[in-house]
Amino acid sequence: MLPIAACVQSARAENIDLLMSDLFTGEGPTYIGATSISREDIPATANYERKYLIVDFRFGNQPPEPHLQKSIHTICMAMVHDRDLMRRLTQQGYDMVSVAFDRRSQYDCL
Questions:
Q1: 54: which strand partners?
Q2: CA-to-CA distance for 81 and 46, rounded, in angstroms?
Q3: Partners of 53 in the beta sheet?
Q4: Dist. CA 58–CA 45, nearest whole Å
């Protein structure tokens, strides 16, 4: 039987949203959630997964374009360097991650 702390840690690591919340606690845009999207335009028989993740952030004040690009890069690199997150995304069948700061635009990340 596993100790309670090990069970809690395991359950917590299973939840992508919790991993993201833990990863993005510093300065910069605020992480507000992630949405899983299934791409129905890709045949189910394709050799790759049909779903991707949109990681949503909001700024207190939207920065000018050069600063927005820096935020995208910072977010993407934080996700790439988190091996546990990358493993979980792969295990759950995500083949792409996009970053969004509003409901109009998405920026491909992974």
A1: 35, 98
A2: 28
A3: 36, 97
A4: 36
pTM score above 0.85: no
- In what helix (H) or strand (E) does residue 106 lie, and over which residues does it extend? strand 106-108
Q: How crowded is residue 98: how many other Cβ atoms within 10 Å of its Cβ?
A: 19
Q: Which pLDDT tens digits describe the chain residue by residue (110 residues)?
A: 434 333 333 343 458 888 888 888 877 889 999 999 887 777 777 766 678 899 999 988 877 777 888 889 999 999 999 998 898 898 888 888 999 998 888 898 87
CA 11/CA 22 separation, integer angstroms: 14
- Residue boundaries of the structural domains of the chain: 17-108
Q: Decide if 110 contacts 20 (C-beta within 8 A).
A: no
Residue 80 in tokens: 């790439």
Query: What's the rounded Cα separation, in Å, for the pair 7 and 34?
Result: 24
